[in-house]
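ASSEMBLY PREDICTION REQUEST
Request ID: AP-0331
Submitted by: J.K., bench scientist
Number of chains: four
Total residues: 1572
Priority: normal
Notes: Please return the full assembly, not individual chains.
Input sequences:
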Amino acid sequence: MDLNDTPEQAEYRAKIRAWLDEHKDEAPILQGEGAITDPDEVAREQRKWQAKLAEGGLAGATWPTEYGGQGVGPIESVIINQELQRAGVPNVFDVIGVGMLGPTIIAHGTEEQKDRYLGPMLNGDEVWCQMFSEPAAGSDLAAVQTRAVQQDDGSWKLNGQKVWTTNAQYATYGLMLARTNPEAHKHKGMTMFILPMDAEGVTIRGLRQISGEAEFNEVFLDDVVVDADSVVGGVDNGWGTGLTTLMFERLTIGLGSSSFGYRGRRFAEALGEDEVASRNSEVRHDFGELAAELEAVRWSGYRAISALQGGQIPGPEFGLAKITTVNCAIKAGDLVADVIGPEALAEESEWAYMISFLPGLKSAGGTEEILRNTIGERVLGLPPEPRLDKGVPFSELRAIEKEGAAA
Amino acid sequence: MDLNDTPEQAEYRAKIRAWLDEHKDEAPILQGEGAITDPDEVAREQRKWQAKLAEGGLAGATWPTEYGGQGVGPIESVIINQELQRAGVPNVFDVIGVGMLGPTIIAHGTEEQKDRYLGPMLNGDEVWCQMFSEPAAGSDLAAVQTRAVQQDDGSWKLNGQKVWTTNAQYATYGLMLARTNPEAHKHKGMTMFILPMDAEGVTIRGLRQISGEAEFNEVFLDDVVVDADSVVGGVDNGWGTGLTTLMFERLTIGLGSSSFGYRGRRFAEALGEDEVASRNSEVRHDFGELAAELEAVRWSGYRAISALQGGQIPGPEFGLAKITTVNCAIKAGDLVADVIGPEALAEESEWAYMISFLPGLKSAGGTEEILRNTIGERVLGLPPEPRLDKGVPFSELRAIEKEGAAA
Amino acid sequence: MNLELSDEQEFLREATAGALSRVKTVEEAREALEDEAALTDLWPVAAEAGWLGLLVSEENGGAGLSAYDAMLVAEEAGKVLAGAPLLGTLPASMLMDLGGDDRVAAVAAGETKAAWLPAAPPSSVEDQWTVDPIEGMDRPEAPQAEVKGDEVTFTGTVAWAPDAGEADLLVVVGLDGGSPVAGVVEASADGVTVESGWRYDATRKLGTITLAEATGRKLDVDEDEISRAWYLTQALIAAESVGTVATALETSVEYAKERYTFGRAIGSYQAIKHSLVEIMRRLDNARSLCVYAGYAFADSPAEIPYAAAAARSVAGGALDYAGRQQIQVHGGIGATWEHDAPLYFRRSQLNRRLVGGTSMATDRVAEELFQGRGPVAAV
Amino acid sequence: MNLELSDEQEFLREATAGALSRVKTVEEAREALEDEAALTDLWPVAAEAGWLGLLVSEENGGAGLSAYDAMLVAEEAGKVLAGAPLLGTLPASMLMDLGGDDRVAAVAAGETKAAWLPAAPPSSVEDQWTVDPIEGMDRPEAPQAEVKGDEVTFTGTVAWAPDAGEADLLVVVGLDGGSPVAGVVEASADGVTVESGWRYDATRKLGTITLAEATGRKLDVDEDEISRAWYLTQALIAAESVGTVATALETSVEYAKERYTFGRAIGSYQAIKHSLVEIMRRLDNARSLCVYAGYAFADSPAEIPYAAAAARSVAGGALDYAGRQQIQVHGGIGATWEHDAPLYFRRSQLNRRLVGGTSMATDRVAEELFQGRGPVAAV
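STATUS: Completed
Returned structure:
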């Protein structure tokens, strides 16, 4: 049992740390005193910092060297994340592009696409967004309805609506899943496209959450035309391309985040301030339970890193950490607000913000129910739910659904 | 809002109360000082008391008068239950026979069957048991595998196994569901039989629960032969007949029981004895929550009675009271034992008994999951689960299941 | 036994729903988060509909109805998130009526606004009458009171009192030598500071009232009557929550039938189905206890603390659960600003911490049983 | 970072499983409910396998292994419900080894049986060292101790101490003028009364020890070391629970694949599937915290209370949940005497209330964080 680095890792860590010691003052300040608050300015400064990180080899380090990466393994990428946290500086701005969409293009894109898009993505010149989800295609991603129809000149005309699109307002490009053959079964007949976000017919609308902040966007596509060469990974092969993105998504979330900053100590400070609360057996019990679970998430993370080092890629069970974290944070928010009372729910309160933020997080990236299904089936080997959408052409499926809903 | 009787009900209640005042001393003592404890003697004495109740018109009061009942409505039967409780005397011994199986025979039996069986059932001379469940047919009752094959002389030969059979050890007859046509769909091809429990080839074995007590039985049927006239409700029509029994089961359980005696006050006494516990905020919170829910069950019962009086028959939502009761009692057992410590788990402790009894009760009469499904679909109108057993002959279904389990 | 609503009660319920249907309460609940002015003032609506005089005796110009009738009104208000003045006004009017304050006729008529400042009766672990604190778990004692003849002078602070920010008359509970007394202080009287605002749920106006030797008219009410005001508020919050949960369940069930994923309506999945049944189970239990509370107020005063506390405890739990599940059943869209679910969630978050909070009601249930009170022998 | 088991640890785990596989521990757990004699005495097994000297230094004839190694043994024992003498013996041998009692060599060799009488360190809400009470929530102070030179005399009662009913030597914690001291008293010494028995789970022998001026040899250990014995037991119970939960999950998953209802394997239904995933989630969290506890014992002593308490808290919750769900997944049959599930349930019911109970561990997690201790700055 050893929490320390191997000699090679220690050397790599030292290198990263040295670079950060030299450059960390150039990073934008996003929290605490002197922090930038204007969202646009934050984005601008973070992009500048991303360019700097890329320069130092701290952005997209797992990318092959020919595309600007360092060709290192996932453990090194963990080390970079840890050192960034330690130095108290932000990670890359375009986590989605660098962590998920870039790797997808590397895996499935044409050489022209790689040459054109990867460089500006890495250094933050061009931000990307992921356009998979739709109002009727959330957990069930293969239900996308956005239509792409090929024109006589080989270009594609797109119509539909995407939702939950992070960074759409900053993005130059989107990687977008659309249906190209509705007569095929739902998992077939989709194609992945690169969409210039400034194309005619693209409308971006901020999607406000409970707190009132627009953390996501909706994107409307109205007769948007893209070139034939914007297809990534082949026509009607979009599902396969998308699976690659989702695999990298799991890896990015699993190894990059550290419980969204929800830690026992943060809540202990709020609760411990109240002398009555800190001696109340019920408060102590509820808090002890959730704090212990949050601590477990930290150590599950270490175990995953250790397994990764042993060559194991984290599976869907990684999602359990998210379930634990979100549910414990929800309990913590309720507990802190119970102790403080209505004042905890003031508009400017950090607790009110947290309480507002968490219900959305619970469903983000797939509902808890879907996650439990996946883990039950893929990890515990339990039999799947009966699927009524197997082998039915997508076009008919919609008709069946409409009929059912009307019944 | 009125908790009082109508004049007619008050009159009926007075009549019952008068009868009980006169006869309650003849009832066997089953609890407290001087209580009988030997199970066989308990059964014997309760049967005698049942005969007495029948004489007074307090057993099977809702049965038509021609079969020994009083032809009264369900509200009067509630009044009888309340008065029996008030007088502190036991109800009929053969609740299953009088409450569920007798009414089934009244609804579906031949005149000969009614003449032969109902009288001795009502006065406790002949106890009955319900033989529906099987090891592979619990919540999914229509999955019974016990086979009944008609012989050349018209009699039926039975082979199979029943389980969860209450009172089998005391029973003269069982009402039994068996499969007569395996080539039909599972809900078709079953037949209801009257089985003499002393028939050759019937073996009864006590089924011990967690506590060590045998609250139920298994019944094994090995080439048991019954006459052609033991069919109730027609050959291959067993499902329909069984549904009648289940409907009366719901009514009996719903209106007869009062939360199995799990009441806040009982737990308050145990917890309140401990000075530290009764002032501990966590104990107070946990106890207050469960006590309030148990109180709700009592008032839900009053509401159901009130609705019944207005002509409404209780639906599947009645089962919610069971879910609440069992889960609250489980929490109460855990809480009391947490306060008392390991000594609460001593073999002779009432709390150890309760803790052992409840897990079985949770699944008795259908698991909580099935109950929630039923209520979700039948009361809230939610769409059903996909059924893979629809329209498949029973014989093929088994083959599919075996294949699936082996995979 | 008859626990069904009477024809008069059915009519009251319908009339209440009708009066509320003329205001876009749910939309306003959202708009008011950004602009308080978006809220329709519901005091005139309440006055016109007769809610303010519901518990005032007929000789004082009220309707002389029962606590359960008031709960029916609260339930209807809860269904549509109406911030109707009930939680503060009804106990105020009840105490003024009982205590012989002739200004209650004007309150019943809607000409004068009155609100009561909630004070919780002591228990075996909380040895004095207390009020909600501005912040934290340490509950301050009720304001100090000094009685002089027909007058009483109060000093102390009561935080987060519903309706109190807008009231002309404040019905205050204070401690005179350790014993509770109630009095009516004009909001404009010397020594009264009123801070008005809202937290998280913009429909619910809350007042934090500071009394610095503020003098008013003493009410001729005893300790039992004063404590009844507290339990009335608990029962009203319970009833209001029942209404809110009912709407949350209804809209969630509707969505679960219409929304498809993986080729099936999501309501066919057990995770969704069972959680909707769980809302229903909690709702049904809460309803039953509201009936109990109504019965206790009408026919069995000794059971009031237990019944009202049990109702609030279970209804509060139901609202907590439903507030979160409604969002969860709706998936990501349920957590967006434009959706109604977050408004119900906001209501649930605030109600849980108002007037003692759900947890104090739960604690009271245990208290009553530990003290050997609780239910009077069952029928 | 390497948190995988070393080859030696893998070997220890396999050897433990091997030694236990020669005893029909689960069957015996059932039979012993009716006839205690059905239990194989596991002290000789423990002696032969070397578990008793696991934490004894090599110079005292032990294996000089780590707390985490001992937890691996406990986990294997937990998998098969083996009532191996670990919870009482291992902290006893550790304290004797640290405190310079030369009889520890005989303990390590299995020639002398030793058990420690658990005493819990104080906290901000419990101001002195306490021991488990015979009954109720009022925790008595640890026995009074009087030190005279190398000897110490104890007076007091410690209830429900694992392994203590059979021990020759009792490692006692007492309070001398308010400060904790430890000493070793012979079970046969004057003034020692031993009551041995079991509650609900027949595999776990418990002793209730009364000391009336019973004198023994003082151990040269400090307060930190004494408290470490408590946390070691917490960690061992956590590890044992992890093993028990792992078996409960495995058998439940297996059954959920094989059992069909309404034409589908029950494991395909979300209610079953999600609850099995919930067992897994809790199990996984408990495992992670066991790793943390092991790390703390080896490398970060300041984190021991927090890490061990967190491990027991989460593992205890996992065992509670799994003990009930295993029965529930198996339906009616899971609640029958002949089934194994009730034996796991019995274990869960007892473990929850042993050595301070799960709830005291949970409380300790809060205590450490409220006191500003808890995790040392993360990697």
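REVIEWER COMMENTS: The mean pLDDT of chain C is 97.
SIGN-OFF: pending second reviewer
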